Amino acid sequence: MCKQEQLKRMDLMAESGSYKNGARKMQEPSFPRRKGLLTPVSVLVLLILPLVDLPSANGSCVFPSSWTGEWYQYGKPVFAINTTVLGDRVCVERTDDKYVVLYSTENCYHCMIINGRHENVIQYREGPWCSAERTSLEEMCGTITSDDMLYSMFRMNSKPIACPFSGSSFTFTYNRGYGECTMPISLAEKCTDESKLLLKYQACPDVEGTESNTEELQCLAVWNDGRNKYLVGTLRGRSVLSAKMYRCFLYEEKPHHQGKMIYLLAQSGDPTCNGLTTVSEGSPTIKLTKVDKEHSRCKYPVWVTEHHDWHSLDGTKDYHFTNKNSTLKIKAQAQDVNGEAFHEEKIVCHNLEKLYPNESMGNKVKLVAHVTSGCDIGYVCMIFHKRDSRIIEIQQSDQKAIMPDEACSISDPSTMPYTTLITTSLHQRKCPNPGRYEIMDFAPSDMLSAPMSRRQRRSDLSRTTKRRIWQDNTEDAECRSTDIQVGCSSSDQTEMIIANTCEHEEIAYFCHGSWEEKGMWYTIASQRNSELQANLGQTFCFSMRLEGVRDRVLGRGGRQKQQEQELWLSRPSRTCQRESKDEDTYRLSNRGVCEDLTKAANNAAFAPSLSQSLFTLSTAAYAVINTLRVLLWR
To answer: Is residue 160 part of a domain?
Structure first.
């Protein structure tokens, strides 16, 4: 029926006060009407007619607004969904989950039964044929059954969800159709981001189709369909053809008789959910068994955990030990590829190891720890060193092992780097090797390796064209002499002062703790500044060692000689370097210890008064003797 006929018929109904649907008669007010003009009721009907017309014309057939976005379907290019368009289909009519759509490319109608499983997953079934003539929704959708093909659509750039597996670590076996791979056992672990699960497949020599491989599963959606539980995620790994592929999983939770939770999974072989009818059939099937990784028997050393918060010398890394003293969380300021301002790492103590037979837990502890850094997961070897009550050093292996027993066997402790940590507040400690020094020259590389004679050094120094002072900002010969006082400016000997005699500048440091290792002294010091605290990145490490013995002539003719030691001092550094670099090391000459210089100063002050007294006494005695002589001659 055309719109003009509808209007004419509804206008007649309005005039008679009756409706076709049998509604009761209504009395209209009487007022003059002219032929050819619409009644007020006719005008109202004309206004609301577009709201009740066919769905294809007035937009009442819409898809849920939550579906709006870009979607992926296996075998098709990425497409968009909005309120009226789903890819190349236009919504025409809807009742509940049944939609009559118009194929814009083929100009024909068919029915789709569409279900939103999750905000990131939509599934649908569709009729077997597309009709050029549109019939009723019931007729077009009546031919669709539950046995028809189920199509899945996955939202692009979707927000991940936490994986539905309780626990952080699992062992698992898997079957790719040639038998179950059970030995060696495979491992699965949650990443720092709980939406990711790292699957470490092990190859079974006696099972065909198995290989050592690592895949990263990121969970995107979960839903229930009756008794079945489904999971959709993306996989990354060597066995996946592209960088990221969608996979569907049917999974089931089964409590074990020993109290462990077991998850049975069947994985789809392509980016669909087709063929997943039972957890025993998949490509592959996986059996996850939760592993207790609380490490309740392993604790970090007491002298470490008595301070729960530690910091690196430059202040860019924070180390926090949890209340149970078995978990260390590291937060580093670093701009990563994802634009994150911080990088987090979790290190859980797994088991303690003895450094030497019959060794007790003293100031040095070796342990195996489980590390989770993003999806970089494994076991590492760690050594903790107590340097002071508020200073520790940590060594950690770079290579991560899959099994804990391998962590300390694959790394050489002598090559493991040191990380120096301090507490928020530091105490002042006595500086090592107190005394007064001056820089002799910048240390050449061959001076670091072996002592040299005085003549050899003079020869080498004559060939050195560029001299450096502590600040390294001038080549003026008069500015080479830099006075360095270690522990001489205060009675507790906790200060180190570096003074430039040319510019009359002084840089003062407070010593906070020192230790000796293989003939090298390491000192943690902070620059003395009332506006900055030690924990704000103003803390440094100095390294010192006594080196290069030389002879000092005491008597005439060179008969009496005394051996002097030189102090090799590094520039302040953010790390305690085990191997000093040439450009960062200086050779210092000892001008005397603080006590000797103080005594010498006191003696120098006392000497003039003593000479003057002796001179006065001698003069008086001479006068007395002359007086006696005169008296005797008389």
So the answer is: no
Q: Which amino acid does the sequence have at 299?
A: K
Threshold 0.90, pTM exceeds: no
Residue pLDDT, tens place only, 99-154: 999 998 889 999 999 999 999 999 999 988 899 999 999 999 999 998 999 999 99
Tokens in use for 171?
A: 């062992």
The alpha carbons of the chain give a radius of gyration, in whole angstroms, of 43
Which residues in 501-632 belong to E strands, given as ranges? 505-517, 520-527, 539-553, 561-570, 585-592
User: Beta-strand (E) ranges in 177-316?
Assistant: 180-190, 196-201, 213-225, 228-237, 245-255, 261-267, 285-290, 309-312
389 and 525 together in one domain: no
Q: Count the alpha carbons within 13 Å of 319 in the hemisphere toward its beta carbon.
A: 25
Same-domain status, 417 and 503: no
Quick one: 266 and 125 in the same domain?
no
Q: String of b and e for 301-321 (b: at least 16 CB within 10 Å)?
A: bebbbebeebbbbebebbbeb
Q: Judge if the upstream peptide bond of residue 184 is cis by omega within 30 degrees of 0.
A: yes
Cα–Cα distance between 116 and 230 in angstroms, integer? 13
Are residues 99 and 13 part of one domain?
Answer: no
Provide the 3-class DSSP secondary structure of residue 630: helix
Average pLDDT over residues 389-414: 91
Verify that 532 and 467 share a domain, yes or no.
yes
Strand ranges (DSSP E) for 84-136? 85-86, 89-95, 98-103, 108-118, 121-126
Is residue 296 in some structural domain?
Answer: no
Q: Quote the strand ranges of 531-596, DSSP E.
A: 539-553, 561-570, 585-592
Contact by Cβ (8 Å): 452, 548: yes
Residue 108, phi then psi, degrees to nearest 5? -140, 165
Query: How many domains, in total, are found in the chain?
Result: 6
Same structural domain, 262 and 314: no
- 430, 511 Cβ separation under 8 angstroms: yes
Q: Please check whether residue 413 is in contact with residue 381, taking contact to mean a CB–CB distance below 8 angstroms.
A: yes
Chain centroid to CA 256: 35
Nearest CA-CA partner of 495 in 484, 505, 504 = 484
Last-in-domain residue among 98, 120, 155: 155
Residue 163 lies inside a defined structural domain of this protein: no
Q: Which domain holds residue 74?
A: 58-155
Burial annotation 90-118 (CB, 10 A radius, 16+ → b, else e): ebbbbeeebbbbbeeeeeebbbbbbebbb
The model's pLDDT over 17-27, given as tens digits with 9 standing for 90+, comes to 333 333 333 33
User: Of 7, 140, 119, nearest to 68 (Cα)?
Assistant: 119
Neighbouring residues of 357: CB distance < 8 A, sequence distance ≥ 6: none
Of 318 and 563, more confident:
318
Last residue of a domain, one of 290, 310, 329: 290
Q: Who's near 244: CB < 8 A, 6+ residues apart?
A: 234, 235, 236
- Asked if 446 and 586 sit in the same domain, the reply is yes
Query: CA dist 356 to 5, 365, 411, Å?
Result: 102, 10, 16
Give yes or no: residues 445 and 587 share one domain: yes
Closest to 182 in 3D by CA, of 206, 199, 213: 206
On the 0-12 / 13-18 / 19+ scale of CB atoms within 10 A, 422 is buried
Q: Does the pLDDT value for residue 43 go beyond 70? A: no
CA nearest neighbour of 523 among 597, 434, 448, 444 = 434
